[in-house]
Amino acid sequence: MDIHSLYAVIGFMFAAYAVIGNDSVQTLGTFIASNARVVKWYGLWVAASLVLIVTLGYSWVVNNGDISFGRLDAIPYQTVQWYHAAAPLGLVLLTRIGIPVSTTFLVLSVFASTFVLEKMLVKSIVGYSVAAIVAYALWMIIARVVNEKMNLVKKEHRMRWRVLQWLATGFLWFSWLSHDMANIAVFLPRQLSLWMLVGVIGVLIFWLGYIFWAKGGEIQKIILEKTGSRFMRSATIIDLVYAFLLLYFKQVNNIPMSTTWVFVGLLSGRELAIATTYRAQYHFKYVFPLIGKDFLKMMVGLGLSVGMVLAIHYIFEPQL
User: Fold this and answer.
1) Residue 39 sits in which domain range?
2) How many domains would you assign to the chain?
3) Is this prediction's pTM over 0.85?
4) Which stretches of the chain drop beneath a pLDDT of 50?
């Protein structure tokens, strides 16, 4: 194994942990929060692993060995350098302290040209805005029909909601993987052999098991501090709306985007709608610090990503 292959393996391992540990909170966070008391962690792990196997296997068959669903068409395979592997290491460190930065920007930006980075940024900004507007409009209606500040699902209806939530989470997990697998696959050849596919799936399932065992880790706090996120009915609605938003942007074009930004935009619009509906009990002075904190963390991630890509293009690459 030459040094560049070693960098690729290291980068892949760090990216696999960081993407599963950081970004998966968007899809699995509400699933973990609302099921932790009634289902053992390994039951949730098995369910998520089965969806992962089916999703990657489907992309591998349909796209001739590509597991990124074509998201890397604008980013051809490159010889991996040490600074490429350093990007997901930074993401691992940020994940450990609970900062929900965008893995798309922090990982893919070091491989992408500034032109592609600009397209990724524009698409992500649009994603954040559309998600916030759609969520605000929907929850202005939902909050008047469903009280999401309290878990009022009748006992005889809970099993139906739990089944619906598991189906919604599976659909969302598939939609999310079709976007964010690019952040891991960027370190790999664009066409994988069967044995490489098995190895990749094995590593991802291992990290997935760790995340379920740790109940989401530090990054899970982003979910737990939002209104009603532990309630399976609320979690189901969030998952379905988010899944359809990702499905929509998947059809727009193959340019990668930050699913983190879409998710934060959705939660922001939802919190604002709930605060608007329940002004007497839920004041805006509680909402804006939550929204502002998440937005600030996104900007930190963006700043780090832009700094890294500029350093690579203007400092490190000219020395090679």
Assistant:
1) 3-319
2) 1
3) no
4) none
